[in-house]
Write a structure and sequence with these properties.
The chain has one domain: Rossmann fold (3-Layer(aba) Sandwich). Helices cover about 25% and strands about 40% of the residues. The chain contains seven helices and eleven strands. Helix 5 packs across helix 7. It is globular, with a radius of gyration of 17 Å.
Amino acid sequence: MKIRELDYADTPWGEISLRERWDPITERDVYEVKLGDDFLMSSQFTTGEEELSRIALAAVPGAGPLTVVVGGLGLGYTALAALEDGRVAELTVIEALPAVISWHERDLLPDTAGMAADPRVRLVRDDFFDVVRTGRADRTYDAVLVDIDHAPDWLLREDHGDLYTAEGFGRVGAMLTDDGVFALWSDEPPEPEVVQRMSVAFKHADAHVVPFPNPITGGHSSNTVYLAGGPRRDDIVAWARNHPAT
């Protein structure tokens, strides 16, 4: 199997690489991201990332215009799907690793080529988790979409864990408009405890299973999209706003 490395960089998170290979089963070029020995993402399966945007934006009422923030750029499928919604007037993508931003600025990925140049798009180099915990969002958003860790209990970095608490979700709620929604991607089945913690900070919370065909196994696989709406303007959000994590 021929693998071509398109880019490589040392980062505070470890060595990251963007690779291209020909997949003989699906008979197409596949783009993959590795962080150290860990496979982060692949263009082989993008349904979950795309549905993260579609499920979230379908829950946002009104004709727009909408402001959306995406935590984690990756291969860009979540951001690209958000731009399909004609109400989206501004899309901010917060990405911690400059190498990942560079891939899109150089259009190394055919499926998302041109996205970085879309006038609605801002690619911001920052740590999304730190933006949330310190209350550094520069505005309120109609939707916050997050696809960074594998799952709420399967983290890329230990310091991400505070986002997935009731207080962390409250801090996300403080970034949203009154009708805003928060959507979170996971590679694991729905966890009732995550929905319960979301329910502390939001009026509505549930989990959507997103199935998709898996030609590698010959069956189906699935991701989870957690969706929460209507941030509570009560003690939990006030506490989160006034007590940023340290």
